Amino acid sequence: DGYTLQRTRGAASSQEFVAKRPSAGDGSSSSSSLSQQAPSTSPLLALLQRPLRRVRKTLQATFLPSGYPTSVGSNYMSYTLWQAVTNFATTANGVLASTFLLYSVGLGAGAIPTAGAMNWVLKDGLGQLGTLLFGKAIAHNFDIHSKTWYFMSFLLLSTATGLEIATILSPQSFLVMGSCANMIKGLSWMAGGSTRSVFNLSFVRDNNIADITAKNTSQYIFASLFGTTAGVSICAYIGQSAPLALLCFSGLAWTSIYSAYRTVKAIPLPTLNSTRLQLLAARYLKCIRTSSTGLVGFGGYMSYKQPPGYVSYQQEYEVPEDEDDTCELELPSPLDLAHQDPPLPWVTAD
Fold it and tell me: Virtual CA dihedral for 122, 125, 126, 131, nearest 10 degrees?
């Protein structure tokens, strides 16, 4: 006890050592020996480390693409978490709306009459027909303004959910209100599902679009399970009270819309649409004005300022190569502009 192993000088093999007791004043050797000792771990912590690692690997394999985080784009985790909050809130609101639709056709009276069942079927059919007509007119815009339509899909879904809950206030208008709500809801699902595929493609880094789409489905199912549980609990608590239902609907709708907004802000779209092209052009013109001392603007048009007394024909201004290189370094990529793209450009843009 108290001895340390020291290699003998001139030993032919690295395995030849001698035992040496450190001297009383050899504090450096003692402190070095202590510093190289492995830190002691709690037996309970050591016992839990392996199960915790196993749970972490299982969760990652279930909900995250293979090779995360290098196999996906930036902000994927932020996008996933905010989308989970959105799915939770919309699912809970959907359970609430379906329950009050059943109340409005007579479930609370003990049985759903035949007329109520027919109204339910007609509601679904008319709503799906309206979705087809609207989809034909606007579906081509989903690729161009994917962020806008994704955010709009949750505004539409919240509107449809509110209409479904409001049917209990006017049961005689069930068919009209229910059909309109189902049509709006179908359009919301069409817009949300179509644009979500564009977002999945923007996160691809390793030819793994199928894996990202599959994990997106798993994330949706997991969040929806909690949303369904919350919706059932809310319905059991409020009963058939329309004011309480509208109050709960308002809170869940606000949550879904806000989280959808945060989801949109986290999506790294590497393409240019009209809004991002306008942002890029504005940055380029600002760069030219900053780097060119002789460049002045009149009403949005550019002209080159000639020295005093200089007479020449009107000619187009060309950016010199050195200025072009400077602007190229300062200009952002479409990916850098993605977070500045407003969800509703005709409302939030300057």
Answer: 160
Q: Which two tokens stand for residue 190?
A: 């069409």
What is the dihedral angle through the alpha carbons of 269, 272, 275, 280, rounded to the nearest 10 degrees?
A: 110
- Give the C-alpha separation, 209 to 319, whole Å: 41
Alpha-carbon distance values, 333 to 70, 276, 283 (Å): 20, 10, 11
Task: Identify the band that residue 65 occupies on the pLDDT scale cut at 50, 70 and 90.
Answer: very high
**Which residues neighbour 249 within 8 Å (Cβ) at sequence distance 6 or greater?**
93, 96, 97, 161, 162, 165
Query: What tokens does 183 get?
Result: 């049509």
> What are the angstrom distances between the C-alpha of 282 and each of 95, 144, 274, 293, 341?
46, 20, 12, 18, 13
Q: What is the pLDDT of residues 263-281, one digit of tens each?
A: 988 887 776 666 767 777 7
- Which of 75-84, 130-139, 271-280 bottoms out in mean pLDDT, i.e. has the lowest? 271-280
Alpha helices for the chain (secondary structure H): 27-35, 43-63, 76-104, 114-138, 146-166, 174-202, 209-238, 242-265, 274-291, 321-330, 334-337, 345-348
| C-beta of residue 157 within 8 angstroms of C-beta of residue 90 | yes
- Rounded to whole angstroms, how far apart are CA atoms 86 and 98? 18
Q: Taking each helix axis as running N to C, give the angle between helix 76-104 and helix 242-265, from 0 to 180 degrees, rounded to the nearest 10.
A: 160
Q: What angle do CA 199, 202, 203 make, to 5 degrees?
A: 100
Structure tokens that stand for 72 in this block: 């996906």
Q: What are phi and psi of 160, to 5 degrees?
A: -65, -40
What is the C-alpha to C-alpha distance for residues 72 and 70, in angstroms, rounded to an integer?
6
Q: How many CB atoms lie within 10 A of CB 232?
A: 14
By the 8 A CB rule, do 158 and 213 touch? no
Alpha-carbon gap, residue 87 to 98, rounded angstroms: 16
pTM for the model: 0.69
- Report d(CA 24, CA 3) in Å as an integer: 12
CB proximity list for 233: less than 8 A, separation 6 or greater? none
Best CA proximity match to 191, nearest among 131, 257, 250, 249: 131
